[in-house]
From TrEMBL:
PROSITE patterns: ETF_ALPHA
Source species, domain of life: Bacteria
Residue ranges annotated for the Electron transfer flavoprotein alpha/beta-subunit N-terminal domain, each copy included: 5-178
Organism name: Pseudaquabacterium rugosum
Annotated keywords: Electron transport, FAD, Flavoprotein, Transport
Extent of the signal sequence: none
InterPro entries the record matches: DHS-like_NAD/FAD-binding_dom (IPR029035), ETF_a/b_N (IPR014730), ETF_a/FixB (IPR001308), ETF_asu_C (IPR014731), ETF_asu_C_CS (IPR018206), Rossmann-like_a/b/a_fold (IPR014729)
Homology family: Belongs to the ETF alpha-subunit/FixB family.
UniProt name for this protein: FAD-binding protein
């Protein structure tokens, strides 16, 4: 009997998320046909049907409103799939453990490599070590999309199967969604991230971090200490319990470099650290280290760059 992999494709409004091809690449590593679950406008399903590596698209017009209902949707399909893959985003992180519980399968999170059909690699101890995990039987996993090479589109689309609406889970209700209105790029997809830590000293000083981010067309991030101190909103926390970022350039200002913070920036291509303490652990992870006062360095850098 052929086994199949189901991949839950990430959607960004009216289009497929830029990371969708990466998640399919991860799903393909299991060496079995990949079916893609798309919940959203028909145009997104049509886009998914042209993704390299997708053998069939399962399309539902309406996205389940919460993780509980999404888990029901996937669990109902799970009989056909021994492996369920999703990007390591907020919704999948809440839904896939539920699918695992509902269907009695294993769950593994934040997978960064899939060396064989029966083994996956994932970080442990806040990213200080990587564990290769042997897997037996059916599996649900979230993958770190940035760790996989994206697949290109192809010319001929595959079939799209329409799914019936799923019965909502009555135990929780979505009361509303609020989007933090901001003009800057999304933190997890930004090419440049400038982050401030406790060293920034006060909420109003975050404008130095913001000014440099704006000069570079980047997103603003923060350490947990900066978030806890009220310098920045929780939504921009980078690290083990915040967002995992993979920009081309990550600038850490006034951040010491605790392992829980570094866990969120490991995939950054170039890390620049600005810290007045030459012994700060962040310098061990930085490609470029600037020992200095961020109150001098940040404005000087922003000034040296052309206004956008
Ligand atoms: P500090 O460690 O206090 O460092 C401040 C730095 O600023 C110092 O190195 C100092 O030299 C420098 N500095 C001060 N003034 C200046 C100046 N004027 N110019 C230049 N440099 C200056 N942390 C995260 O960030 N993200 C997470 O997701 C996260 N998850 C966690 C999960 C768990 C379970 C636990 C236990 C902790 C977690 N933490 C996380 C917290 C983490 O351990 C650190 O406490 C936190 O990262 C420290 O933040 P910081 O570097 O901003 O502050």
């Amino acid at each position: 009997m052929t086994s199949f992999t189901l991949v839950l494709l990430p959607i960004d409004g009216e289009v497929l998320d830029a990371g969708a091809g990466r998640v399919v690449a991860a799903a393909q590593a299991f060496g079995q046909p990949v079916h893609a679950l798309v919940q959203g406008p028909a145009a997104v399903a049509a886009q998914a049907a042209r993704l390299q590596g997708v053998a069939r698209v399962l399309h539902a017009e309406t996205a389940p409103p919460n993780a509980e209902t999404l888990a029901r949707r996937i669990a109902a399909l799970a009989e056909r799939y021994d492996t369920v893959v999703a990007a390591h985003g907020m919704l999948a992180r809440a839904a896939l453990p539920r699918v695992a519980a509902l269907t009695g399968r294993a769950y593994l999170s934040d997978v960064t490599a899939i060396p064989s059909r029966r083994s996956v690699v994932r970080p442990i101890y806040a990213g200080s070590a990587m564990a290769t995990v042997q897997v037996e039987g059916a599996l649900c996993l979230t993958v770190r999309a940035s760790a996989f090479e994206p697949l290109a589109d192809r010319a001929a689309p595959v079939d799209i199967e329409a799914l019936a609406p799923v019965e909502p889970d009555g135990r929780s209700r979505l009361l509303g969604r609020e989007t933090a209105g901001q003009d800057r790029p999304d933190l997890t997809r930004a090419r440049v991230v400038v982050a401030g830590g406790r060293g920034v000293g006060a909420a109003e000083h975050m404008r130095l971090v913001e000014a440099l981010a704006d000069r570079l067309g980047g997103a603003v991030g923060a350490s947990r200490a900066a978030v806890d101190a009220g310098f920045a909103p929780n939504s921009v926390q980078v690290g083990q319990t915040g967002k995992v970022v993979a920009p081309e350039l990550y600038i850490a200002a006034g951040i010491s470099g605790a392992i829980q913070h570094v866990a969120g920036i490991k995939d950054a291509k170039v890390i620049v650290a600005i810290n007045k303490d030459p012994d700060a652990p962040i310098f061990a992870h930085a490609d470029i280290g600037l020992v200095g006062d961020l109150f001098e360095v940040l404005p000087a850098l922003a000034q040296a760059l052309p206004a956008r």
